[in-house]
Amino acid sequence: MLIVLVGLPGSGKSTVGRQLARRLGLPFRDSDHDIEARIGCSIREFFEREGEAAFRDIEQEVIRELTQVGPCVLATGGGAVLRPANREQLRRTGCVVYLRSAPEELFRRLRHDSQRPLLQVADPLQRLRALYEERDPLYRETCHYVIETGRPSVSTLVNMVMMQLELAGVLQPRP
Ligand SMILES: Nc1ncnc2c1ncn2[C@@H]1O[C@H](COP(=O)(O)OP(=O)(O)O)[C@@H](O)[C@H]1O
Ligand SMILES: O=C(O)C1=C[C@@H](OP(=O)(O)O)[C@@H](O)[C@H](O)C1
Ligand SMILES: [Mg+2]
């Protein structure tokens, strides 16, 4: 089974995804990690050198591959839903969970983070609000379930995702 996490930068896709995979005994894959292995530098450097469109081309290839490697928990990058082909591929092949977070919460988590290329601007909170406006409808269109991430800790969120998947019959209930 393929479980896919989507959401804005800082929503916890990588952190929650890793713990969720451990709890489920599934491999964990992070599309940004595979992209960095392929380009041989950080995503931030690649954005600066080659631009966003070149990044999106590689991201689309990596997503297509990772949705075909067998059962795993897949953390995507925040912009994975921008391309219709990715939205269609993720929704068709996986059980897609949207980790929804308010831009203000994401700003609190990421204000000291220098590795997210889209947030290296004078007003990152304003940028996060704009990204939310643009992408929230795309995450909703792609996902099967929405999980609110505002207050819960990472381990509580892992439990919430597991409970949601059990209720939906995607996961067997735990004894
Ligand atoms: N539910 C949460 N509560 C508090 N901090 C969180 C939560 N989820 C993620 N974080 C923190 O926010 C930062 C970004 O998380 P990350 O998993 O990299 O997000 P993403 O992969 O969605 O961009 C990390 O420092 C992580 O520890
Ligand atoms: O939102 C985006 O467009 C991006 C989010 C990043 O992943 P995270 O969501 O893990 O930060 C990474 O894929 C790249 O910097 C582009
Ligand atoms: Mg991530």
Please specify the SSE layout and strand pairing.
Elements: E1 2-6, H1 13-24, E2 28-30, H2 31-39, H3 43-50, H4 52-66, E3 72-75, H5 84-93, E4 95-100, H6 103-110, H7 124-142, E5 145-148, H8 154-167
Parallel strand pairs: 1-3, 1-4, 2-3, 4-5
This protein binds adenosine-5'-diphosphate, shikimate-3-phosphate (S3P) and magnesium ion (MG).
Magnesium ion (MG) is lined by residues 13-14, 32, 75.
Function: Catalyzes the specific phosphorylation of the 3-hydroxyl group of shikimic acid using ATP as a cosubstrate.
InterPro entries: P-loop_NTPase, Shikimate/glucono_kinase, Shikimate_kinase/TSH1, Shikimate_kinase_CS
Binding site for Mg(2+): 14
Please tell me about this protein's structure.
Catalyzes the specific phosphorylation of the 3-hydroxyl group of shikimic acid using ATP as a cosubstrate. Its EC number is 2.7.1.71. Keywords: Amino-acid biosynthesis, Aromatic amino acid biosynthesis, ATP-binding, Cytoplasm, Kinase, Magnesium, Metal-binding, Nucleotide-binding, Transferase. With 175 residues, this protein is of the alpha/beta class. It has one domain: 3-Layer(aba) Sandwich (Rossmann fold). Helices cover 54% and strands 13% of the residues. The protein has eight helices and five strands. α3 packs across α4, α5 crosses α7 and α6 crosses α7. Magnesium ion binds next to α1. The site of magnesium ion has 4 residues, from α1.
